[in-house]
Amino acid sequence: MSVEAREARQPWILLSPALTAVGLLLFVPLMFIVVYSFWLRSAAGADQVGFFLDNWQEALSDAFYRDILLNTLKIAGITTIVCALMGYPSAYFIARSKGNKPVLLLLLMLPFWISYIIRTMSWINILGVSGALNSLLMTIGIINEPIQMLYNETTVILGLVHFLLPFMILNVFVSLDGIDTNLESAANSLGATKWQSFLQVTLPLSLPGLAAGGLLCFVLGAGTYITPMVLGGPRDAMFANLVYEAIITQLNWPLGSALSLMLLVVLGALVMLYNRYLGMAQLMKGLG
Amino acid sequence: MEGTGKLGWSLIRLWALLVYGFMFLPVAVVVLLSFNASQFGSFPMTGFSFRWFVELANNDAILRAFRTSVTLGLMTAVISTTLGVLASLALVRYKVPGTNMISTFLIAPILVPEVVLAVALLLFLNFLGINKSFTLLLFGHVIFTLPFVILVVQARLVAIKRDVEEAAMSLGASPVQTFFQITLPLMLPAVLAGGLFAFTISFDDITGTLFWKPGGVETVPTQIFAMLRNSISPEINALGTVMILLTVGLPLLGAAIARQLAQKSGP
């Protein structure tokens, strides 16, 4: 074999284990559940192999699934907006601070490393019947009996915001940090007020970071089932909870496949749309 | 005008401070309550005590979960880092046609919602005869951590100059010698960072793990999840405190080691 041919083969040898792993453990399984979603669950024994539209008919026409899907998108949407409102000024503060930027950033990243389940359950300590807030309110004398503040849609959103905020801040920070501060100074020296130069120079330049953070918050928020299980009430199920119910509790794997694919299509469409207009590179910057 | 700018900045600083408080307060309460002497895991605090940590150390279920999580995390880290480093080398060091497509393909596992990945892997491997088991957990964790390893390692690999390797080769070192004596030591911080990242993500994972784990086997997060079903006990807070120390301490330690290594091998 010639030297050139060997050179050309080398990267593929290095890539092949990872490509094989992703192919066999992600793409083939995804194609498999497409097939599986047309099978039928049988009351006893193995699922019935074939081409049945029943699962899709149920998943697409039942108002129950549609309502929960819409509610999931609503919760993810509110979460994303709250993350943006809380995260943008914080990221701006870190990026423009004269203090120790790496330390400020690290401080905000620490919660990011703390286990998701711990951070989610920590709200029970704050808002629970015998939690910090009730305890405080009773000590001051505002209330006599503890109030149940947990297990509703608001606490689900609260938990999601607490979980996803670092993703937003990191992405906005990366794009704000990359903006040349001279641009703002130039705008100011040309007569723009601080507020004008922010609105017309800095904000537009940081939108890609805001969009990347928003996408991550939305997709991760809409795909969760743990937060509603820990912080939500019985009526706060999100779409991923339906998938969990179908697969783990009811063992209805064909229906679970169809529901998973629905979620994938809805959230995948968002990722594609983002990729089409802004490209994956921005997202990678924030993750790396 | 200068005045409004200052006022604006003060407001932003206050806002950021509140956000920091929002992020840290609940976590701080977990740590505080884990030292609560009271029977119940709640306020008011009745005294300072280590009793819940002692109970933790005597709780077989939690110790078992801990061992499972550590074993799973270490194996995931080794496999994922090996695959990730090889792939990153190819992507950074060679001109491969279609690099963009390959990158997108390799990070696809984190672009797909984790629930969907979990369902697909469970159903497919079950079809192949691999039931819910440690093997399924390991496969799942590897595929889910691989993109993170690739992103981290690639970012650091770009910073390593090829000149040193070329110098070694021109002085007569074989490619294999060059790799082990020059490239690998230079890459070590990147490799460690990737491994640490994979371990931490695997150690924390619950979304996929609940789908893949066989009955009776628990990792630390699923154990906590199961304990939450009863009520929140000080034991969970103690376990939370241990987890916080581990997951925050490890990356900090890793960063410190990486910096040391980078300084030693630096110019």
UniProtKB/TrEMBL annotation, chain A:
Membrane-crossing segments per the record: 12-39, 75-95, 102-118, 124-143, 155-174, 210-231, 251-274
InterPro entries in the cross-refs: MetI-like, MetI-like_sf
GO biological process, one term: transmembrane transport
Top-rank taxon: Bacteria
Topology in the lipid bilayer: Multi-pass membrane protein
PROSITE patterns for the chain: ABC_TM1
Alphabetical UniProt keywords: Cell membrane, Membrane, Transmembrane, Transmembrane helix, Transport
Gene Ontology terms: cellular component: plasma membrane
Localization per Swiss-Prot or TrEMBL: Cell membrane
Domain ABC transmembrane type-1: 69-274
Family the entry assigns: Belongs to the binding-protein-dependent transport system permease family. CysTW subfamily.
Name this polypeptide is given: Spermidine/putrescine transport system permease protein
UniProtKB/TrEMBL annotation, chain B:
GO biological process, one term: transmembrane transport
Organism: Salinihabitans flavidus
Keyword Cytoplasm tagged: no
Protein name as catalogued: Spermidine/putrescine transport system permease protein
Pfam families: BPD_transp_1 (PF00528)
Family membership noted in the UniProt record: Belongs to the binding-protein-dependent transport system permease family. CysTW subfamily.
Localisation: Cell membrane
Gene Ontology cellular component list: plasma membrane
Domain ABC transmembrane type-1: 66-254
